[in-house]
Design goal:
Layout lengths: L7 H11 L20 H8 L3 H8 L8 H10 L4 H12 L15 H9 L5 E5 L4 E4 L1 H6 L13 H7 L1 H6 L3 H17 L4 H14 L1 H7 L9 E8 L3 E12 L2 E11 L2 H13 L2
Helix pairs in contact: 2-3, 2-4, 4-5, 10-12, 11-12
Amino acid sequence: MANVEDNSLGNYLKNRRAKLNPAAFGIAPTRRRTPGLRREEVAQRANVSATWYTWLEQGRGGAPSADVLDQIACALELTSAEREHLFLLAQHRPPAVQYQEPEGVTPQLQRVLDSMEFSPAIVRTTAWDIVAWNHAAQAVLADYGTIAPEQRNILRLFFGNPRVRNKTLGWEKEARRVVGAFRSDAARSGGSEQIAALVADMIQISPEFAEIWRDHDVLDYGEGAKHFHHGTGGPMTLEYSTFKVEGRPDLGLIIFTPATPTDADCIRSIIRDRP
């Protein structure tokens, strides 16, 4: 139960409620002592008891469930950042990631990618669909622009594309790391149906994936090194780091950097020779 003397959650709910315009919800204008919606109006929109919601604002409503918090966030028309703040106040953790269908990134983020001339970079979803990349990634990793969008997925490429498989050094070991990292991401994805469909498809496509998936290994993708053989640049090692995209918890940015000066020279040579 929240501390009444330190009622951060209740204060936040009252503040958000006061900023809503009743007319925007079809509520006839009446004389009100305070601005915004009334408690019972928010409770009705959230499909919860008015008494319970009043207690929640007063700091004595008990710990709300994630589903109820989502209903309240919707009733108060919270933004994604405001919704996350609500969960942090109520449950001391961010909400589960809400699955979103693959879509492009903002022009600003694409410009960030393009500014990294000799560092391959891609943006992937929690289902590991690749939705953005820069010129260096297209030259060094894969020509994503020529791959059908439905096949532009890290798992599908790694297990189903012979060119990607053949250029990966130590493919078997890397395959286990890839699947373990994907399983970790999948648990946080908020898209169980979509992830289940992808996994079922991968099991049918690749016996190797099916075998590794049954081991239930979980790994962090965070940082590491990718060893591969480029067709024109020869063997090289790229170190990678993964970052979340602010405001889009369903997206991850992966930046690859050359591990040695020799690797850097190889990348420059590949990019310079590419049309």
